[in-house]
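G.,

No rush on this.
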Amino acid sequence: MLQTFLPLLLMTFGICLFIVLMQFLWKYVDDMVGKGLAMSVLAQMFTYAALALVPMALPLSILLASLMTFGNLGERFELLAMKSAGVSLINIMKPLIIVVIAIGAGAFFYQNYAMPKVQVKLYTLLFSMKQKSPELEIPEGVFYNQITGYNVYVKQKDRKTGLLKNVMIYDYSNGFNNASVIVADSGRLKMSADKMFLVLLLYNGESFANLKSQSSGEEGFKTAVPYERESFRTRELLIEFNANFTMTDESFLSNQYIGKNLSMLQTSIDSMKHDLDSIKVVNAKVAFDQSYKRTIASSQSSAMVASGAIAKAKQKIKIVPLDFDSIVNSKDKEAMKLLLERAQQSTESLRSDNFFKAASMEDEGKQMRRHITEWHKKFAVSFACIIFFFIGAPLGAIIRKGGLGVPVIISVFLFIFYYIIDTIGYKMARDGIWYAWQGMWLSSAVLAPLGIFLTYKAVNDSVIMNADTYINAIKNLLGRHSGRKIERKEVIMYFPDYQALLPRIKALASTCTTYINEHRRWLDYLSYWKQGGQDIKASKIAEEMESIIEELNNSDQNLVLNKLMDFPIISGYSLLSSKITPKTGYIIGLCFPLGIPVYLLATYQRKLLLQDIGSVKKTCEDLIEMIEKEKDL
């Protein structure tokens, strides 16, 4: 098993890592293209990206490898041979279970110790790449604005000599109010030796610049704005342009949540929680101190102490609500206006202060949630590896399809479903809508029952992936059964006693007639649930019919055998379990609204059942006629 599983795991891991790496490349391609980055920098970035994407590729590779392993075993009937030898599926999976658990443990240690360092280096490198200036490539016929403080227009370029023709430069490096324009017939552009400056050599041109306006002696009047015009044959323009790649210091990311292991995250979470609790206590105290109740309580306490009523001051002061409208209306207009202005200013001040405090607490809370989600993520990825194995292995044993066809389709579908659920849970936890543990373990909580269900079905040799199973289930639900097939036996041990079966066939036809007459009327809702959703008489008719068919199946007469195929298959008309008693069914029908669609579907199936009972009656009558005509049978 290990010789089959491990090579497939390595192959699928390489494929999955390449796929997620390409996704990463498309996401950050804009930050890399046109920057003139060296191959060593790109190689370093791809290396860190591949290491950072291992936790994403590992669960998918385990799912695909386990599906292919057990699919190949089932397709080559090796799994069937092992089961025939008495080896259960769990025992077959045991070596791989141990390996996957070891891989999950390794994934945890990788997440805890290696991932913080890898993520710090990767995001530092990405940040440095974003900060790097783009490679200088001035296009023809359009304004180029990638040089800070300048807009450059070149009408035509000579690719061989590097000569720029009809150059126009807008220089707003000193501000838009002090912009200048330079026009030249031609020019050349080159980089300084240290790659810190652009050297632009211009030929036969003019420059225009506005000078600062001077105010005249008379107040309220200004003189015309002077400007400067300069013609030149040759002019050299030095523009600051750093084309070097500078690596940013890693220290600013090392203290973030992505650069911490489990113990560091826990320490930071405890510290942030303590700070948040302290801020909440201080804010609550300040809010109470600024409220009118605190002011009134303080003034009443001072008055009681001043009057000598110290004992009463120690008692709880009862706050009596004040009628502010009456107080305001008792003032004159000037005092009322002053009072309202002071109240508005105080309210605006409190509002601004509370908004600032809320924003500060939200930032602290967001940082703490990021740390908590990262803490749970270190465990969730390892658990996802184990879950995907218990989904892929039994699913491969059920579908019995190997190779890269069906397993890849199923794996991609399941992983997309897992990724969507995991992303939803992460965003819910990050934004504080759910608790962090709820969001980070949502995908595991959804997929774990699926793994348990598939393992149980695979151990019991279920046919849940057989299309005919679902087609027949739908047919049974709608009351449309497949036809009965009766074949003539090559060897018959006991021939049926037609004369002894004749009374039973007549009794069955009579029972069918009675059933049809009694069940023509509509069965009301309460009566259906009072019966527990069961039809005892129809069940007895089906049992007697199958018993007669079983005995007549030993006949050597083709006419009789062909007539037996006219008997319908009466099964699947009851939507409820036979263990439900009439009393329980009555309670369900009264308490649960789901009883209404069940009753409506049962009414439709009742109509189909009456048609089948009519077919049973007609077939019985034909058999009676055949037996009575052929006395020599």
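When you get to it, here's the other one too:
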Amino acid sequence: MRKRIAIKDHHQEIHLINQRCISVLVIMILLIILLIIRLVHLQLVNHDHFTTLSKKNWLDLVPLEPTRGLIYDRNGVLLADNIPVYSLDLLPYKIANMPSTLAEIAKIIPLSDDDIAQFHKELKQHRRFDEVTLKLKLSEDEVARFSENQYRFPGVRVKAHLIRHYPFVNSLSHVLGYVGRINMDELQEIDATNYSATNYIGKLGIEKYYEDDLHGTVGYEQAENDASGQALRVLNQIKPVPGKNLYLTLDSKLQSFVEQALAGHRGAVVAIQPATGQVLAMVSEPSYDPNLFVAGINNKEFQALQQSPDRPLYNRALRGLYPSGSTIKPFIAVGGLDAGVISPNDTIHDPGWYKLSTSSRIFHDHKRGGHGIVNLYRAIVTSCDTYFFTLAHNLGIQRIDAILEKFGFGESTGVDLEEEIAGVVPSPAWKRKVKGASWYEGDTLNLGIGQGFMQVTPLQLATGIAVIANHGKRFVPHLLLAEQQPGKSLEMQTPAQQDPVNFHDPNNWNIVINAMQGVVTAPDGTGFRFGKLGPYSVAIKTGTAQNHSIKNYNADEAFSASAYEEQSKLPEKLRDTTLLVAFAPVEKPQIALVVIVENDAGASQVARQILDYYLIGPPLVVPVAPVNPTKVQGNPHVVH
């Protein structure tokens, strides 16, 4: 018997189908709701965010580097310029494989190990969307070869830059300083936004001190790109604000002449305008070419400069510490007059030595047999050590320190350069702290003739002698004469006057200045090497820092023939260093001068050449002009 076949339950099937349809419909509705929510979220809530991301696919916000301000001398001669160069720049965020890209670029444009190392160093210092320079100063041939292959390198482009150029090369390098690539430490201190388009910053000198003024303000442009990332057009632009132009107090012609007069020697010269504190010349020899540091000096060149025994990188005018020698005597003398310890007519007998009653040590005068009867005038004219041993003993260390500090010794002058150091005015407290020893009366005597522990910089000495020239008026030495906002007129700087050095009797200044004139005019004056007095009056004081004891040595009067011969036989580094301070004309000083020549007796001759040049005019044989002097560009101004 056959089994019966069950009849289908149509109602059940319809119910099941309906349930499935309803489930599908609910799911579809939920998905549509989720899609709507997502669309609302994208279109409304995150509209700004995704609009920005979208624009980044075809728009670039590119920072624009401001033009660095120019630097001129007081007569409008251009000292620091900007010259155009081509560089190869990379945008890291647009480069997928950096090592491969660099390898391919090297096949087109030669890249040195220094180029690669510097690039990776800067890569760490910049954000991914900042341009980083791979190679600077591309040749025309390199630019042409890369342009042919530009399409192969998205995110890499040739770009025109302005970089710093110093047309006077070695001249002025210790004053101007130089710019160089920004390092990691500097990046932490600067406004990264304002330097987003800048790779260089002032490292030394004027370039560093006035960095904020010279740099300017960054600008921006919004550029439309094609599919490969190449700019098609500029949609919007905020122009950068150029840095200020600076006019310095320096006279570049005087500076060049001083360098020529000092050429072949190690030493320093500082010339100041006494009535204002303006620095007319500041020379440290030997010097160096700051242009080497702008694009990045290679290791071989840097080591050659750093290891040179002549130390060309060392700024002797600002950082050189020298024994003042007898150049300190006019300051001690005017202090002794004011304290009432001496008068112009007081005399001593100089047997050629001085001895303290409490000690068996004998302090010798530089002249064997002594100077005989000596008053203040003759003590300065002949540089009598015994007179100043006596004066130092009678003054005592506290009063000597107070006198020297009045003239600014032992502290920074405040000049607008950051590299200055303060020098040393020794005291009992200083000796205990630094030397771990007690102060002896013999230390006081040595200080009275500028020997012992005292150290001065050429700039300090120049500032001090300017105070004597001014009869006590003091000004902060400065290098900035005027500054100029882009498109505006010059803003002159006002000299900063300091507390004056006041004495009970103003005639004390004349007494010491008259004796300093006698250094040149008197028959037995120590300024005999300065030469016969010219058409202007001058007050000077000579000094010598002895580096090696020799028989028959005479520090300030003259080398005897045998002593001079012995000096010339010594290794150069052991020969004496000579110093000279001067100002002229005495009636109305226009220049205060300090000359220091290391291991040579030529300070007086160098000083005479400089004063003659400045007060009379160029000699018949004009010093060699600086290399490739650049004519004044832009809007020159002559500032007197």
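Confidence is low (pLDDT under 50) at residues 549-564, 621-640. The chain is about 35% helix and 20% strand.

Enjoy the weekend,
O.
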